[in-house]
Amino acid sequence: MNESVPTRINKRRLWLVFGLTSGYMVTEAVTGLLTRSLALLADAGHMLTDAGALGLSLMAVWFSERPSTPERTYGYYRAEILAALLNAVVLLLMSFYIVYEAWQRFKDPPAVTSWPMLIVASVGMGVNLVGIRLLQQSSGKSLNVKAAYLEVISDLLGSLAVIVAGLVMLTTGWFRADPIFGAAIGLFIIPRTWTLLKDIVRILMEGTPPGLDLEKMKSAILAIPNVTAVHDLHVWTLTSSVNAMTAHIWIRDGADESTVLQDLRRIAKEEFEIEHSTIQIEKGCESPPAF
Known about the structure:
3 strands; three-stranded mixed β-sheet; 8 helices; Dihydrodipicolinate Reductase, domain 2; 2 domains
């Protein structure tokens, strides 16, 4: 399968941002350990969140290019969701540990070497600004890239928090600023990760995609000429931004099946952004039996 030019550009930019983010994350973690800065370590955990999200974006691009097989008729779409599940669980555990460690340090805050902390956080701001510049243009054309773009913006906020904590400690010697800002970053990660975890569970349980009104879809289907009823209507998410639908449609005797089917697929795609639809057409009565 040949890649389109936009796909190649998006992949290249994602790889660049992923490399910058991952490299800075390691630098930040090592510096946090050496300087004893919990805020820096917490932001490294935040960067791990975003490196994981960027990795999943790249994985989504890679898996989307792989063809389905007789053994895996949907291809490898769900591998992205399983990787996201592992990422979310690890991040929740890490966030709770950061908050616990912040509480322990707040009672007896260790001295933190502020200058290296400030330098590394400032470099982080530069890395994030480069990432934002690389992804900004493509973020309006790809939902996958847009998610990565928003992650990098959140990195920028984390770096700002570390810089503020470093400046407070450098100018006042108040070392409790480090666990306070460390806890703030940890608490910032928790709701984002919890939301991600809920989305993962919804996908694995094959729930209706958020923002899709199933009753509105039923009404749109019933408004098609010659459609008398719809049942067994199911809509679920295969992987990020890829939804599927199945439906059992009853039409009047004498109606042209191909015309109705064409209208159904058009509505699914144009009004509800569903590319993959499986529709069964039935004739023979004005309304189907109740079941």
